[in-house]
Amino acid sequence: MRTILVGVVWLCLGLFLDAMSLNGRRIDTTLDGEGIEAAIKGEKLLKRVRRGWMWNQFFLQEEYTGSDYQYIGKLQSDQDHGNGLVKYVLSGEGAGTIFVIDENNGDLHATRRLDREEKSFYILRATVVNKRTGQKLEPETEFTVKLHDINDNEPHFSKEVYTGSVPERSDIGTSVIQVTATDADDSMYGNSAKLVYSISQGHPYFSVDPNTGVIRTALGPGDMDREQREHYQVVIEAKDMAGQRGGLTGTTVVNITLTDVNDNPPRFTQSIYQFRVPESSKSGSPVGRIQATDRDIGRNAEMYFTIVSGDGMDMFDISTDKDTQEGVITVSKPLDFEKKPSYTVEIQVQNTQVDPRFMSSGSKDMATVRIAVEDVDEPPLFDKASYLMEVKEDAAVGVAVGSVSAMDPDGARSMVKYSIDRRTDMDRVFNVHPGNGSVFLLRSLDREEAAWHNITVTATEYNNPRQSSHVPVYIRLLDINDNAPTFATTYETFVCEKTKAGQRIQTVSAIDADEPSTGHKFFFSLAPEVPHRSNFTVRDNGDNTAGILTRRASYSRLHQSVYLVPVVITDGDYPMQSSTGTLTVRVCTCDREGNMELCNAEALSSSPGLSTGALIAILLCAIILLMIVVLFTALKRQTKQEPLIISKEDVRDNVVSYNDEGGGEEDTQAFDIGALRHPDAAAALEESAKQRRDIIPTDTLLIMPPVNVASRDNGDVREFINQRVLENDCNPTAPPYDSLATYAYEGAGSVAESLSSLGSASSEAEQDYHYLSDWGPRFRKLADLYGAEDSDFS
């Protein structure tokens, strides 16, 4: 129960505080749970005041036009006792610029003109401080300054120009389009933003709903006809203040178009049309155009034409040109002025799309079309489109094969002459009589060469050779039995020496170039000149084939190796034709199964063997193999040739390193010292060996500078080395790769002269070394060693 009472107390306090806020006063008092309980028990409460502010509600009217600051209201705190020690401080949106406060008395002012449509309220904060200490006397409190709206904005439509459409002949009240306007003023305050729509231009055709802005038709179907008037311009007005006097107004333009419906049938521009067409016009040739009009547009104006009656229904057709909606009359069958010079037809036109609301299915129009056929000079006309003629292949030259007939269809009936197009009869086998059109033979015929002949006959007017026509003539040759039958192929067979009588050794057949109507029938028999006791006989099988049979049980290849069997072949047609074919039979030795083993020399020569082409192919293969062997041998020899660098001792592109001292002067195997002692002989040897082995020297060699022979004779090593360097630099046959040629020269000027053994005599004669004692104390030891006699060491 206590908890319920506490909740009720809290609810009452909340309602009380809200009421104080609505009355313009705000008391911020905080009670804890114990205080509430004490209040319930009737005990004395201890109240702690957090904030003791009191001020009025702050509302400000927009668009203030006065010269002074606009007064908003007054802030007042219960801490302000009027002694001047309290200072009011303002902060928040626009504080100090838009809003200012008197720090002494709390009066709040707006410094400039405000627009609610730009910003409808401002949130500010205020506090009170002690002027002397600057200490806050009250916590900072937030409050709001709201702007009161005035009717300072006129309505604006979402579009300056609207475009709408409605079908013609619509019922009254048919919706066309909806327009919408807005007002920036406050719709929650007064009628400043309450709009009313009205129509200021467009009566009496349209109306507008004052609340929704929906434009509707105001006249009935009979008055809204697109064919009379298609476009309308309507001006709609929107007024605020609920349309009352003094309200602001905005306008917009609405362009309305009446769309077409199929409410008009097509109509011919005239009731009778007349055309002329030449009788030579081909099928599909245009005769003329007829026109009908329709007040509708687009698909509602599409139409089609039909021929409904008249004597020319089968001779002419009519179609609709999709681009111009005209009826195009064309020829459907060949015309003949001589047979019928004119035609009359009735043509009907109607829409392809019919709207049953406005037109019945009988909304059609009729017109009469008269067509006159013009006479023209026509070429001769054959009585048939083509001719088929037959003639026997044995017909004599000059015999008539058949005839053609043509006549001038014009009234003049000009004479006609006939001729054959020789491009169709290059061999001139046929001809035609120019007067009566009779086709006859110029040459004899043979069906076996050509069974058909196709020619073209031309008919030309005598009076006008340009008028001519052509007709194909097909001539079939009829067969007669003028060819004898023959063997189907060349027959050659064999018979074993040991056989039995009545053994079939071959089956033969025949062919005939003729083609009898009842089919071929051949008869086979031995020739009558064959002796009575022949070696073979012929048995007719009755199916246009015959079997060759033996009449003996044995044959001797040595006695007679080849038999020629004459066979008479006769056909069954009239007149009967026959021929004699010869069958070659060879006598051969056979095994037990009857397989041929050995025949006579003639048979052997005809046995399969190597032909000349095969022998030539084998010979070519042998030659190719021989060439491959020779080429392989040559390549192998080439790989065994001496290489460019003979050994590791070759100085070209080789660096030979020595790290041993050698054997001294007595070691004559390390280097041929005679080359330096006798440079002329060494130069002669080098000249023969210095040519490159991998190229052939040319005659265009660089002229070497002359060598001073005297300098070589005196054994000057430096001159020798310089000469070799010059030769290597100027030699065109020098190797193209890098070479390392090392030369050493000790120089001159030593008191002891050169210690090289190159200047020593090559003989074994004794030398005098006493001059060493003249070189000073450093060489005394050496002079003692070399100056002593050999006997001293013995």
From TrEMBL:
Residues 77-157, 158-268, 269-382, 383-487, 487-610 form the Cadherin domain. One of its GO terms (biological process) is cell-cell junction assembly. InterPro entries: Cadherin (IPR039808), Cadherin-like_dom (IPR002126), Cadherin-like_sf (IPR015919), Cadherin_CS (IPR020894), Cadherin_Y-type_LIR (IPR000233), Catenin-bd_sf (IPR027397). Keywords: Calcium, Cell adhesion, Cell junction, Cell membrane, Glycoprotein, Membrane, Metal-binding, Repeat, Signal, Transmembrane, Transmembrane helix. The chain crosses the membrane at residues 614-635. GO terms for molecular function: beta-catenin binding; cadherin binding; calcium ion binding. GO terms for cellular component: adherens junction; catenin complex. It holds the Pfam family CADH_Y-type_LIR. Cadherins are calcium-dependent cell adhesion proteins. This is Cadherin 6. It comes from Amphiprion percula (Orange clownfish). The lineage of its organism: Eukaryota, Metazoa, Chordata, Craniata, Vertebrata.
